[in-house]
Specification:
heterodimer, A: alpha/beta, Rossmann fold, 5-stranded parallel sheet, 5 strands, globular, B: alpha+beta, 4-stranded antiparallel sheet, 15 helices, about 20% strand, binds iron/sulfur cluster
Chain lengths: ~280, ~425
């Protein structure tokens, strides 16, 4: 990523050129509408944090340090969705300032939990929640970063997995493709040798349609995956939904709520949840 | 009921020539096992002696245990850790533990784990290396092969091991193997196998259709057939004979032998499912294009669970993980599935983009092209893929549907939905 400055020709051919001071790639970490959980995952990498600070220059990361180095940055990690007019403008600047822009976490990649308001009336919400709703300036919808600017990579998860975050940074630093699988969680779950909560307990596990990466945290404690890593490659939501409806007798409204959560605004979860919402309405 | 049993028997009999062809030559394997020795009797209380004996010989004993309502292989300290009085109910896409005979220890059928987990681990470091000038230096290899004794291996799984021997092991000169895999070979040599014959097959079992069970005839060190007071015990290898000599075995009575035989016959008649294996290879050769593949594609999730639990599936992916400096690299191999998008991904795009092509590939590989590749069927009839498929897709039923020319298909349980993104870019 970072081009090393060309070495000065040595005075004498036999002499070793003095080692050039390494220019470390500059990292920026941004927050938009979010809970800070994904940024914390970076700080949770306790054992690797020193190595990370050595490998990159942390140029802008308000959650971790006050000092701000001026742009441009080599890598920008963006947490959060675009929810306010101010954010809508700021993301354009962020894009211009970063060579490589990565959206991290469900908010940045799908709109996150706050995008549930996209199905509701924001004004009504603000009236109920805030003492002075007139002070609230927010957009009609909360949307992912990719809805506004070009994003080079998206890292799923609510929050992102620290190992995947490290893998992503390592891959960027070493100019290789990150090993971030796009298959479903079941493969990770089975590799770990966990008892399947869907087949063995009739739990409504979203593992078969959810992207792997969390390490099968929920099935490991005996509960169903609730899809916080978002849709896998080519998810078969309808086929799994049929299973929930027929074998587990779950009504469409429940299936709708399961799919419309952390990543509900991301296709194809969005269309699927709309589909079950219509089904639920028909049943009423 | 009786007629159904008779039919199943007929089917099993009809499959014999094919199954013999499919399983032929599977005896000469990495570890040669002598034909099983004379049956002896191991009193129930002496099961503890067996476990202790194995531990004294330095083995970590791994056996079936109940983990969150599922029978899974885990290290055990004593027979107390085994699932006494536990049975299971297995149907398409469901598994439930049930109360079993309190006096029996091995009444349940296969859980999701198979010996594959230990001989071909799901995630394994192959090596570590460090960049050095223009080249690299290997700093570590794979982890040492653990010394494991697997207790309670089912006959179908022994057959599955013989199938994987052809994939990873050094077979006879007319070799079918993919590539020699030293770790596998060492694990095979070292791992001790105590088989348990199936007296109470599961709802999705169909080993009889392939002739791989319910009784083990080869490929084990010791085999046990559970009776109420103890086990009929046979040694199947020199190592097994040595162990047997140290156990408090006695001559079995005529009644005990008859009972064991009766139990085996009864198990044959109580297979949960049956697969018409006769000419299944030819069938799948003919059915390369069939509307039934489209129909399955409506139900299949492409989740890969079937391939993860299948004791013969051997696909893996290898990833190099660098550290932040880019100097240290770890090469890891993990189980992979032909149902993932990346599996067949090349610079020209995915080789099998549609679900139709993935399910078809899987079924045809298991039952048809596996035979071309390894001279043996890729299915041993353990039924795991039926139990652990989240939507209950049943290999025996799909073959039957193809055979019936797709006329008497089960109604699709999952109609096509506009939002299924099949075929769209990831
Ligand atoms: S518990 Fe969930 S994620 Fe794990 S295998 Fe079952 S369905 Fe898949
Ligand atoms: S294909 Fe299914 S039944 Fe056959 S061996 Fe594999 S998991 Fe068992
Ligand atoms: S057959 Fe079942 S287990 Fe296999 S990929 Fe399809 S849905 Fe998953």
């Amino acid at each position: 990523m970072a081009e090393a400055p060309t070495a000065e020709p040595a005075a004498e051919p036999a002499a070793q050129p003095a080692p050039e001071p390494r220019r470390r790639p500059r990292l920026a970490v941004y927050k938009f509408s979010s809970c800070d959980g994904c940024q914390l995952q970076l700080l949770n990498l306790e054992d690797e944090l020193l190595a990370l600070a050595d490998a990159v220059e942390i140029a802008y990361f308000l959650e971790a340090r006050r000092q701000e180095l001026p742009p441009p940055y080599d890598v920008g990690l963006v947490e959060g969705s675009i929810s306010t007019p101010e954010e809508e403008e700021r993301i354009q600047t962020v894009r211009r300032n970063c060579k490589f822009l990565v959206a991290i976490g469900a908010c940045a990649t799908s709109g996150g939990i706050q995008s549930l308001r996209n199905w509701a009336n924001v004004e009504e919400f603000t009236r109920h929640v805030y003492a002075r709703p007139q002070w609230i300036k927010s957009l009609e919808t909360a949307t992912p970063i990719a809805a506004h600017v070009f994003v080079d990579f998206e890292l799923h998860g609510c929050p992102v997995n620290p190992r995947q975050l490290l893998e992503l940074v390592s891959a960027l630093l070493n100019h290789r493709r990150p090993n971030i699988p796009t298959h479903c969680l079941c493969i990770e779950c089975k590799r770990r040798g966990l008892p399947c909560v869907l087949s063995a307990h009739g739990e409504p596990c979203l593992g078969p349609i959810t992207q792997a990466g969390c390490g099968a945290l929920c099935p490991a404690v005996g509960r169903a995956c609730y899809g916080c890593f978002g849709p896998m490659e080519q998810p078969r939501i309808g086929a799994l939904g049929e299973r929930f409806a027929q074998a587990q007798q779950r009504p469409p409204a429940e299936i709708m709520r399961m799919i419309r959560s952390f990543n509900g605004y991301l296709e194809p979860f969005k269309q699927a949840s709309d589909h079950y919402e219509r089904q639920a309405a028909q049943q009423d | 009921m009786l007629r159904a049993v008779a039919r199943r028997r007929q089917r099993a009999a009809a499959s014999l020539p094919n199954r013999d062809a499919a399983m032929k030559g599977t005896t000469a394997m990495v570890v040669s096992h002598a034909s099983p020795g004379a049956p002896r009797f191991l009193p129930r209380a002496a099961l503890a002696d067996l476990v202790t004996l194995l531990q004294d010989e330095g083995f970590t004993v791994v056996g079936p245990t109940v983990v969150d309502g599922v029978v899974m292989y885990r290290p055990i300290d004593s027979p107390d850790d085994l699932p006494h009085g536990v049975n299971d109910v297995q149907q398409r896409g469901t598994y439930r533990l049930a109360e079993g005979d309190p006096e029996l220890t091995f009444e349940f059928a296969s859980g999701p784990d198979s010996p594959k987990r230990f001989l071909f681990p799901p995630q394994q470091q192959l090596m570590q290396f460090r960049v050095q000038g223009e080249g690299f230096e290997v700093t570590a290899g794979p982890p040492d092969v653990p010394k494991i004794a697997l207790l309670g291996v089912r006959p179908c799984d022994l057959a599955a091991i013989r199938v994987q021997d052809r994939v990873f092991g050094q077979d006879d000169p007319a070799t079918f193997r993919c590539e020699s895999e030293p770790w596998y070979e060492q694990a095979r040599e070292q791992t001790l196998l105590v088989a348990v014959n199936c007296t109470s097959p599961g709802g999705n079992c169909f080993c009889v259709s392939w002739g791989t069970g319910p009784e083990a005839h080869e490929g084990f060190d010791l085999s046990l057939t559970e009776l109420r007071d103890g086990f009929i015990c046979r040694a199947g290898s020199p190592r097994g004979k040595e162990l047997a000599a140290k156990l408090p075995l006695r001559e079995p009575t005529r009644t005990e032998l008859d009972l064991a035989e009766l139990l085996m016959n009864r198990a044959c008649e109580h297979m949960g499912r049956a697969l018409d294996t006769a000419s299944v290879k030819e069938l799948l050769e003919q059915k390369r294009e069939d509307s039934h593949w489209d129909e399955v594609a409506q139900r299949c999730l492409s989740c890969g669970n079937c391939t993860m639990v299948c004791p013969t599936c051997f696909c893996s992916t290898v990833t190099d993980v660098t550290d932040l400096s880019g100097e240290e690299t770890t090469r890891v191999r993990s189980w992979e599935s032909c149902f993932t998008h990346q599996f067949s991904y090349t610079v020209a795009g995915p080789g099998r983009d549609s679900l139709r092509s993935r399910y078809r590939h899987w079924l045809r590989h298991k039952l048809c092209t596996w035979q071309d590749q390894f001279g043996v069927s890729g299915c041993v009839g353990c039924g795991r893929c039926i139990t652990w498929c989240p939507v209950g897709i049943d290999i025996t039923q799909e073959v039957q549907a193809l055979r019936n020319d797709s006329t008497s298909l089960p109604a699709p349980i999952a109609p096509a939905c506009a939002f299924s993104s099949e075929g769209s870019p990831p």
